[in-house]
Amino acid sequence: MLHKAAVQRHEWAALAIAFVYFFCVLAAYFVIRPVRDQLSAAVGSTALPIFYAATFVASLALVPLFGAMAARWKRRQFVPAVYAVCIVGMLAFIPLFQMQEQIGARTLGAIFFVWGSVFNLFVVSVFWSFMADLFDTEQAHRLFPVIALGGSLGAIVGPALTRALIFLLGVSGLLAISAALLGVAIACVFALSRWSRRHPVRGDERREERIIGGSMLAGARQTLRSPLLLRIALLMLLGDAVGTVIYALLADYSGATYPTREARIDFAASLDLWTNLAQMSLQLVVTRPLMVRFGTAPVLALDGAIKAIMLAGLVLVGGPWIALVAVVTRASAYGVFKPAADSLYTQVDAETRYKAKNFIDTAVWRFGDLAVTSSFNLLRALGAGQPVFALLSMLAAAGSSWIGWRIVRLPELRADDAARGADTR
Protein backbone atom coordinates (compact mmCIF):
# COMPACT_ATOMS: atom_id res chain seq x y z
CA MET A 1 0.00 0.00 0.00
CA LEU A 2 1.22 3.46 -0.91
CA HIS A 3 2.02 5.85 1.88
CA LYS A 4 -0.70 8.45 2.29
CA ALA A 5 1.78 11.23 1.42
CA ALA A 6 2.92 9.54 -1.82
CA VAL A 7 1.85 10.58 -5.28
CA GLN A 8 -0.04 7.74 -6.93
CA ARG A 9 0.90 6.57 -10.40
CA HIS A 10 -2.13 7.97 -12.23
CA GLU A 11 -1.67 11.36 -10.50
CA TRP A 12 1.83 12.14 -11.76
CA ALA A 13 0.73 13.52 -15.13
CA ALA A 14 -1.90 15.80 -13.59
CA LEU A 15 0.52 16.93 -10.89
CA ALA A 16 3.19 17.85 -13.46
CA ILE A 17 0.74 19.74 -15.69
CA ALA A 18 -0.81 21.56 -12.71
CA PHE A 19 2.70 22.45 -11.53
CA VAL A 20 3.52 24.02 -14.92
CA TYR A 21 0.09 25.67 -15.07
CA PHE A 22 0.51 27.44 -11.73
CA PHE A 23 4.11 28.31 -12.62
CA CYS A 24 2.86 30.15 -15.71
CA VAL A 25 -0.01 31.89 -13.89
CA LEU A 26 2.17 33.35 -11.14
CA ALA A 27 5.13 34.06 -13.42
CA ALA A 28 2.74 36.02 -15.67
CA TYR A 29 1.61 38.06 -12.68
CA PHE A 30 5.00 38.62 -11.06
CA VAL A 31 6.53 39.79 -14.32
CA ILE A 32 4.25 42.84 -14.18
CA ARG A 33 3.72 43.21 -10.42
CA PRO A 34 6.87 45.32 -9.80
CA VAL A 35 5.58 47.79 -12.38
CA ARG A 36 2.37 48.14 -10.37
CA ASP A 37 4.12 48.30 -7.01
CA GLN A 38 6.55 51.04 -7.99
CA LEU A 39 3.54 53.25 -8.72
CA SER A 40 2.37 52.82 -5.11
CA ALA A 41 5.79 53.83 -3.89
CA ALA A 42 5.87 56.85 -6.21
CA VAL A 43 2.57 58.32 -4.96
CA GLY A 44 2.83 57.16 -1.32
CA SER A 45 0.38 55.34 0.95
CA THR A 46 -2.01 58.31 1.16
CA ALA A 47 -3.11 57.66 -2.43
CA LEU A 48 -3.73 53.94 -1.91
CA PRO A 49 -7.42 54.31 -0.86
CA ILE A 50 -8.11 55.90 -4.27
CA PHE A 51 -6.39 53.05 -6.09
CA TYR A 52 -8.11 50.41 -3.98
CA ALA A 53 -11.50 52.11 -4.35
CA ALA A 54 -11.13 51.93 -8.13
CA THR A 55 -10.05 48.29 -7.87
CA PHE A 56 -13.02 47.49 -5.62
CA VAL A 57 -15.46 49.08 -8.07
CA ALA A 58 -13.89 47.18 -10.96
CA SER A 59 -14.11 43.91 -9.01
CA LEU A 60 -17.79 44.50 -8.22
CA ALA A 61 -18.47 45.20 -11.88
CA LEU A 62 -16.68 42.06 -13.03
CA VAL A 63 -18.12 39.61 -10.46
CA PRO A 64 -21.60 39.48 -12.12
CA LEU A 65 -19.96 39.01 -15.55
CA PHE A 66 -17.81 36.24 -14.11
CA GLY A 67 -20.91 34.66 -12.56
CA ALA A 68 -22.83 34.84 -15.84
CA MET A 69 -20.02 33.05 -17.68
CA ALA A 70 -19.83 30.39 -14.97
CA ALA A 71 -23.62 29.90 -15.07
CA ARG A 72 -23.71 29.15 -18.80
CA TRP A 73 -20.47 27.36 -19.70
CA LYS A 74 -18.91 24.04 -18.85
CA ARG A 75 -15.66 24.08 -16.90
CA ARG A 76 -13.55 23.17 -19.94
CA GLN A 77 -14.99 26.22 -21.73
CA PHE A 78 -15.17 28.65 -18.81
CA VAL A 79 -11.61 28.42 -17.45
CA PRO A 80 -9.78 28.96 -20.79
CA ALA A 81 -12.17 31.85 -21.61
CA VAL A 82 -11.16 33.69 -18.43
CA TYR A 83 -7.47 33.42 -19.32
CA ALA A 84 -8.13 34.43 -22.93
CA VAL A 85 -9.82 37.63 -21.73
CA CYS A 86 -6.78 38.33 -19.53
CA ILE A 87 -4.45 37.86 -22.51
CA VAL A 88 -6.45 40.35 -24.58
CA GLY A 89 -6.37 42.85 -21.70
CA MET A 90 -2.62 42.42 -21.25
CA LEU A 91 -1.90 42.96 -24.95
CA ALA A 92 -4.20 46.00 -25.04
CA PHE A 93 -1.87 47.80 -22.62
CA ILE A 94 1.10 47.58 -25.00
CA PRO A 95 -0.04 50.41 -27.32
CA LEU A 96 -1.27 52.36 -24.28
CA PHE A 97 2.21 52.35 -22.72
CA GLN A 98 3.64 53.40 -26.07
CA MET A 99 1.30 56.42 -25.91
CA GLN A 100 2.18 57.18 -22.30
CA GLU A 101 3.14 60.81 -22.99
CA GLN A 102 -0.25 61.57 -24.53
CA ILE A 103 -2.25 59.72 -21.84
CA GLY A 104 -0.16 60.86 -18.87
CA ALA A 105 2.04 58.67 -16.73
CA ARG A 106 -0.06 58.98 -13.57
CA THR A 107 -3.38 58.29 -15.33
CA LEU A 108 -2.00 55.28 -17.18
CA GLY A 109 -0.31 54.08 -14.02
CA ALA A 110 -3.55 54.24 -12.03
CA ILE A 111 -5.40 52.27 -14.73
CA PHE A 112 -2.63 49.70 -14.78
CA PHE A 113 -2.68 49.42 -10.98
CA VAL A 114 -6.37 48.49 -11.14
CA TRP A 115 -5.79 46.06 -14.00
CA GLY A 116 -2.85 44.37 -12.27
CA SER A 117 -4.80 43.94 -9.04
CA VAL A 118 -7.93 42.55 -10.72
CA PHE A 119 -5.85 40.35 -13.01
CA ASN A 120 -4.08 38.75 -10.05
CA LEU A 121 -7.29 38.05 -8.18
CA PHE A 122 -9.19 36.48 -11.06
CA VAL A 123 -6.44 34.32 -12.58
CA VAL A 124 -5.35 32.88 -9.23
CA SER A 125 -8.92 32.39 -7.98
CA VAL A 126 -9.87 30.53 -11.16
CA PHE A 127 -6.77 28.37 -10.89
CA TRP A 128 -7.57 27.14 -7.37
CA SER A 129 -11.26 26.68 -8.21
CA PHE A 130 -10.18 24.49 -11.11
CA MET A 131 -7.84 22.48 -8.86
CA ALA A 132 -10.61 21.96 -6.31
CA ASP A 133 -12.74 20.64 -9.17
CA LEU A 134 -10.11 18.15 -10.32
CA PHE A 135 -9.20 16.56 -6.99
CA ASP A 136 -10.99 15.34 -3.87
CA THR A 137 -10.12 16.36 -0.29
CA GLU A 138 -7.60 13.60 0.32
CA GLN A 139 -5.79 14.39 -2.93
CA ALA A 140 -5.83 18.09 -2.10
CA HIS A 141 -3.98 17.50 1.19
CA ARG A 142 -1.27 15.55 -0.65
CA LEU A 143 -1.02 17.44 -3.92
CA PHE A 144 -1.94 21.11 -3.34
CA PRO A 145 1.27 22.00 -1.47
CA VAL A 146 3.30 20.45 -4.31
CA ILE A 147 1.25 22.28 -6.93
CA ALA A 148 1.75 25.48 -4.95
CA LEU A 149 5.51 24.97 -5.36
CA GLY A 150 5.03 25.45 -9.10
CA GLY A 151 3.50 28.84 -8.36
CA SER A 152 6.35 29.65 -6.00
CA LEU A 153 8.88 28.84 -8.71
CA GLY A 154 6.95 31.02 -11.17
CA ALA A 155 6.87 33.78 -8.57
CA ILE A 156 10.67 33.55 -8.38
CA VAL A 157 11.24 33.47 -12.14
CA GLY A 158 8.77 36.32 -12.79
CA PRO A 159 10.55 39.09 -10.84
CA ALA A 160 13.93 37.71 -11.98
CA LEU A 161 12.80 38.21 -15.59
CA THR A 162 11.61 41.72 -14.75
CA ARG A 163 14.96 42.66 -13.19
CA ALA A 164 16.81 41.25 -16.20
CA LEU A 165 14.60 42.72 -18.93
CA ILE A 166 13.06 45.97 -17.66
CA PHE A 167 15.92 48.11 -19.04
CA LEU A 168 16.10 46.07 -22.26
CA LEU A 169 12.46 45.56 -23.25
CA GLY A 170 10.58 48.14 -21.18
CA VAL A 171 7.06 47.65 -19.85
CA SER A 172 5.62 46.69 -23.25
CA GLY A 173 8.00 43.74 -23.55
CA LEU A 174 7.09 42.54 -20.07
CA LEU A 175 3.41 42.64 -20.98
CA ALA A 176 4.04 40.46 -24.05
CA ILE A 177 5.95 37.92 -21.94
CA SER A 178 3.09 37.84 -19.41
CA ALA A 179 0.55 37.21 -22.18
CA ALA A 180 2.66 34.37 -23.62
CA LEU A 181 2.82 32.67 -20.22
CA LEU A 182 -0.98 32.82 -19.96
CA GLY A 183 -1.16 31.15 -23.37
CA VAL A 184 0.80 28.21 -21.97
CA ALA A 185 -1.58 28.16 -18.98
CA ILE A 186 -4.54 27.72 -21.36
CA ALA A 187 -2.82 24.72 -22.97
CA CYS A 188 -2.39 23.23 -19.48
CA VAL A 189 -6.12 23.70 -18.78
CA PHE A 190 -7.02 21.64 -21.85
CA ALA A 191 -4.52 18.93 -20.91
CA LEU A 192 -5.89 18.72 -17.35
CA SER A 193 -9.45 18.55 -18.65
CA ARG A 194 -8.50 15.51 -20.74
CA TRP A 195 -6.88 13.90 -17.69
CA SER A 196 -9.96 14.61 -15.60
CA ARG A 197 -12.22 12.81 -18.04
CA ARG A 198 -10.01 9.71 -17.65
CA HIS A 199 -9.70 10.07 -13.86
CA PRO A 200 -12.85 11.75 -12.50
CA VAL A 201 -13.40 12.57 -8.84
CA ARG A 202 -14.61 9.43 -7.10
CA GLY A 203 -18.39 9.51 -6.73
CA ASP A 204 -18.80 12.50 -9.07
CA GLU A 205 -17.81 11.12 -12.46
CA ARG A 206 -19.75 13.68 -14.50
CA ARG A 207 -18.38 16.78 -12.71
CA GLU A 208 -16.28 17.87 -15.69
CA GLU A 209 -19.15 17.91 -18.17
CA ARG A 210 -21.75 19.70 -16.06
CA ILE A 211 -22.55 23.36 -16.52
CA ILE A 212 -21.83 25.14 -13.25
CA GLY A 213 -25.23 26.86 -13.31
CA GLY A 214 -26.81 29.21 -10.78
CA SER A 215 -27.36 32.97 -11.00
CA MET A 216 -24.84 35.74 -11.56
CA LEU A 217 -24.85 36.85 -7.93
CA ALA A 218 -25.02 33.38 -6.41
CA GLY A 219 -21.53 33.70 -4.97
CA ALA A 220 -22.51 36.56 -2.67
CA ARG A 221 -25.64 34.76 -1.43
CA GLN A 222 -23.74 31.52 -0.84
CA THR A 223 -21.10 33.32 1.21
CA LEU A 224 -23.66 35.01 3.46
CA ARG A 225 -25.58 31.77 4.08
CA SER A 226 -22.66 29.44 4.82
CA PRO A 227 -20.81 29.44 8.19
CA LEU A 228 -17.79 27.90 6.46
CA LEU A 229 -17.66 30.52 3.71
CA LEU A 230 -18.22 33.36 6.18
CA ARG A 231 -15.24 32.16 8.21
CA ILE A 232 -13.11 31.83 5.09
CA ALA A 233 -14.12 35.39 4.17
CA LEU A 234 -13.22 36.58 7.69
CA LEU A 235 -9.85 34.85 7.48
CA MET A 236 -9.32 36.57 4.14
CA LEU A 237 -10.20 39.98 5.62
CA LEU A 238 -7.92 39.55 8.64
CA GLY A 239 -5.05 38.35 6.46
CA ASP A 240 -5.67 41.21 4.07
CA ALA A 241 -5.62 43.71 6.95
CA VAL A 242 -2.13 42.52 7.85
CA GLY A 243 -0.90 42.47 4.25
CA THR A 244 -2.35 45.86 3.31
CA VAL A 245 -0.89 47.66 6.34
CA ILE A 246 2.53 46.19 5.57
CA TYR A 247 2.09 47.15 1.91
CA ALA A 248 1.31 50.77 2.88
CA LEU A 249 4.29 51.01 5.24
CA LEU A 250 6.53 49.43 2.61
CA ALA A 251 5.30 51.87 -0.05
CA ASP A 252 6.27 54.81 2.15
CA TYR A 253 9.67 53.28 2.91
CA SER A 254 10.40 52.55 -0.77
CA GLY A 255 9.29 56.00 -1.91
CA ALA A 256 11.49 57.70 0.71
CA THR A 257 14.53 55.49 0.05
CA TYR A 258 14.57 55.01 -3.76
CA PRO A 259 14.15 58.20 -5.84
CA THR A 260 13.77 56.77 -9.38
CA ARG A 261 11.15 54.54 -11.02
CA GLU A 262 13.76 52.00 -12.10
CA ALA A 263 15.23 51.78 -8.59
CA ARG A 264 11.79 51.23 -7.08
CA ILE A 265 10.98 48.53 -9.66
CA ASP A 266 14.29 46.83 -8.88
CA PHE A 267 13.60 47.00 -5.11
CA ALA A 268 10.07 45.60 -5.57
CA ALA A 269 11.36 42.80 -7.80
CA SER A 270 14.07 41.94 -5.22
CA LEU A 271 11.46 41.75 -2.46
CA ASP A 272 9.30 39.48 -4.60
CA LEU A 273 12.29 37.25 -5.35
CA TRP A 274 13.23 36.79 -1.68
CA THR A 275 9.57 36.41 -0.68
CA ASN A 276 8.99 33.62 -3.11
CA LEU A 277 12.19 31.79 -2.17
CA ALA A 278 10.96 31.83 1.45
CA GLN A 279 7.49 30.77 0.29
CA MET A 280 8.89 27.73 -1.51
CA SER A 281 10.86 26.72 1.58
CA LEU A 282 7.73 26.91 3.75
CA GLN A 283 5.76 24.79 1.28
CA LEU A 284 8.46 22.12 1.16
CA VAL A 285 9.28 21.91 4.85
CA VAL A 286 6.08 22.91 6.64
CA THR A 287 2.83 23.09 4.68
CA ARG A 288 2.64 19.73 2.94
CA PRO A 289 3.74 17.58 5.93
CA LEU A 290 1.29 19.37 8.24
CA MET A 291 -1.64 19.15 5.83
CA VAL A 292 -1.07 15.48 5.08
CA ARG A 293 -0.80 14.51 8.73
CA PHE A 294 -3.10 16.94 10.53
CA GLY A 295 -5.38 18.56 7.98
CA THR A 296 -6.21 22.20 7.46
CA ALA A 297 -6.68 23.74 10.91
CA PRO A 298 -3.08 23.67 12.23
CA VAL A 299 -1.79 25.12 8.97
CA LEU A 300 -4.22 28.04 9.07
CA ALA A 301 -3.35 28.64 12.72
CA LEU A 302 0.39 28.57 11.95
CA ASP A 303 0.03 31.26 9.29
CA GLY A 304 -1.53 33.67 11.77
CA ALA A 305 1.12 32.85 14.38
CA ILE A 306 4.01 33.54 11.98
CA LYS A 307 2.54 36.91 11.04
CA ALA A 308 1.88 37.86 14.69
CA ILE A 309 5.49 37.09 15.66
CA MET A 310 6.94 39.18 12.82
CA LEU A 311 4.63 42.09 13.61
CA ALA A 312 5.61 41.96 17.28
CA GLY A 313 9.14 42.72 16.08
CA LEU A 314 7.88 45.58 13.93
CA VAL A 315 6.32 47.20 17.01
CA LEU A 316 9.85 47.68 18.40
CA VAL A 317 12.00 48.03 15.27
CA GLY A 318 11.42 50.39 12.36
CA GLY A 319 13.20 51.33 9.16
CA PRO A 320 14.50 48.49 6.95
CA TRP A 321 12.89 45.86 9.25
CA ILE A 322 9.66 46.46 7.30
CA ALA A 323 11.27 44.78 4.28
CA LEU A 324 11.97 41.60 6.29
CA VAL A 325 8.45 41.64 7.75
CA ALA A 326 7.02 42.00 4.23
CA VAL A 327 9.06 39.05 2.94
CA VAL A 328 8.12 36.66 5.77
CA THR A 329 4.41 37.57 6.03
CA ARG A 330 3.88 37.42 2.27
CA ALA A 331 5.71 34.09 2.12
CA SER A 332 3.45 32.73 4.85
CA ALA A 333 0.29 34.08 3.21
CA TYR A 334 0.96 32.30 -0.09
CA GLY A 335 3.06 29.38 1.09
CA VAL A 336 1.08 28.39 4.20
CA PHE A 337 -2.36 30.04 4.24
CA LYS A 338 -3.34 29.79 0.58
CA PRO A 339 -2.93 26.02 -0.01
CA ALA A 340 -4.74 25.28 3.27
CA ALA A 341 -7.63 27.68 2.69
CA ASP A 342 -8.11 26.57 -0.91
CA SER A 343 -8.23 22.91 0.10
CA LEU A 344 -11.47 23.71 1.97
CA TYR A 345 -13.20 24.32 -1.38
CA THR A 346 -12.82 20.66 -2.35
CA GLN A 347 -15.64 20.00 0.10
CA VAL A 348 -18.27 22.20 -1.54
CA ASP A 349 -20.19 21.97 -4.82
CA ALA A 350 -19.06 23.31 -8.21
CA GLU A 351 -21.13 26.50 -8.08
CA THR A 352 -19.58 27.37 -4.73
CA ARG A 353 -16.08 26.53 -5.95
CA TYR A 354 -16.29 28.98 -8.82
CA LYS A 355 -18.72 31.66 -7.69
CA ALA A 356 -18.48 32.00 -3.91
CA LYS A 357 -14.73 31.57 -4.00
CA ASN A 358 -14.40 34.18 -6.70
CA PHE A 359 -16.65 36.56 -4.75
CA ILE A 360 -14.50 36.13 -1.63
CA ASP A 361 -11.21 36.38 -3.54
CA THR A 362 -12.21 39.52 -5.44
CA ALA A 363 -15.00 41.66 -3.98
CA VAL A 364 -14.40 40.76 -0.31
CA TRP A 365 -10.63 41.04 -0.63
CA ARG A 366 -10.74 44.40 -2.41
CA PHE A 367 -13.30 45.75 0.05
CA GLY A 368 -10.80 44.84 2.75
CA ASP A 369 -8.06 46.73 0.88
CA LEU A 370 -10.24 49.84 0.69
CA ALA A 371 -11.39 49.67 4.32
CA VAL A 372 -7.88 49.09 5.68
CA THR A 373 -6.14 51.80 3.66
CA SER A 374 -8.88 54.33 4.49
CA SER A 375 -8.56 53.47 8.20
CA PHE A 376 -4.77 53.67 7.84
CA ASN A 377 -4.95 57.25 6.58
CA LEU A 378 -7.48 58.22 9.28
CA LEU A 379 -5.31 56.83 12.08
CA ARG A 380 -2.24 58.50 10.59
CA ALA A 381 -4.09 61.84 10.54
CA LEU A 382 -4.81 61.29 14.24
CA GLY A 383 -1.11 60.85 14.94
CA ALA A 384 -0.66 57.06 14.78
CA GLY A 385 2.75 55.83 13.74
CA GLN A 386 4.31 52.53 12.70
CA PRO A 387 4.20 50.92 16.20
CA VAL A 388 0.41 51.44 16.39
CA PHE A 389 -0.16 49.97 12.94
CA ALA A 390 2.09 47.02 13.74
CA LEU A 391 0.26 46.35 17.03
CA LEU A 392 -3.19 46.43 15.40
CA SER A 393 -1.98 44.15 12.61
CA MET A 394 -0.52 41.76 15.19
CA LEU A 395 -3.94 41.50 16.85
CA ALA A 396 -5.54 40.79 13.45
CA ALA A 397 -2.99 38.02 12.82
CA ALA A 398 -3.65 36.48 16.24
CA GLY A 399 -7.41 36.53 15.52
CA SER A 400 -6.79 34.82 12.19
CA SER A 401 -4.77 32.11 13.94
CA TRP A 402 -7.60 31.41 16.42
CA ILE A 403 -10.31 31.24 13.72
CA GLY A 404 -8.13 28.98 11.57
CA TRP A 405 -7.62 26.59 14.48
CA ARG A 406 -11.37 26.31 15.12
CA ILE A 407 -12.62 26.19 11.54
CA VAL A 408 -12.37 22.40 11.43
CA ARG A 409 -15.21 22.17 13.99
CA LEU A 410 -17.75 23.35 11.41
CA PRO A 411 -20.30 20.69 10.39
CA GLU A 412 -19.87 21.61 6.71
CA LEU A 413 -16.47 19.98 6.69
CA ARG A 414 -16.34 16.31 5.81
CA ALA A 415 -15.41 13.71 8.32
CA ASP A 416 -11.88 13.08 7.02
CA ASP A 417 -10.67 16.62 7.66
CA ALA A 418 -12.63 16.86 10.88
CA ALA A 419 -11.00 13.68 12.11
CA ARG A 420 -7.55 15.07 11.43
CA GLY A 421 -8.51 18.24 13.27
CA ALA A 422 -9.84 16.28 16.24
CA ASP A 423 -6.45 14.60 16.59
CA THR A 424 -4.80 18.00 17.04
CA ARG A 425 -7.10 19.33 19.76
Structural account:
It is a single chain. With 425 residues, this protein is mainly alpha-helical. The protein has a single domain, classed as Up-down Bundle (Growth Hormone, Chain: A), CATH 1.20.1250.20. Helices cover 84% and strands 0% of the residues. It has 14 helices and no strands. Helix 10 packs antiparallel against helix 13. The protein starts with 11 loop residues before the first helix and ends with a helix.
Question: Can you lay out the helices and strands and say which pair or pack?
Answer:
Blueprint: H1 12-43, H2 48-72, H3 75-98, H4 100-103, H5 105-134, H6 137-198, H7 218-225, H8 227-257, H9 261-294, H10 297-316, H11 321-343, H12 350-381, H13 386-406, H14 415-424
Helix pairs in contact: 1-5, 1-6, 1-8, 1-9, 2-5, 2-12, 3-5, 3-6, 5-12, 6-9, 6-11, 7-8, 7-12, 8-11, 8-12, 8-13, 9-11, 10-11, 10-13
Task: Tell me the strand percentage band.
Answer: under 5%
Question: How far from one another are the termini?
Answer: 29 Å
Number of domain modules: 1
Low-pLDDT segments? 211-216, 415-425
Provide the residue-averaged pLDDT: 77
Return Rg in Å. 20 Å
CATH architecture annotation: Up-down Bundle
- How many strand segments? 0
What structural class do the secondary elements suggest? Answer: mainly alpha
CATH first level: Mainly Alpha
Q: Tally the helices.
A: 14
Rough outline: globular
Give the SSE order as H and E letters.
Answer: HHHHHHHHHHHHHH
Query: What is the CATH topology assignment?
Result: Growth Hormone, Chain: A
Helix fraction by DSSP (H/I, runs of at least 4) = over 70%
In terms of quaternary structure, what is this? single chain
Output the CATH homologous superfamily.
MFS general substrate transporter like domains
Q: What is the makeup of the main sheet?
A: none
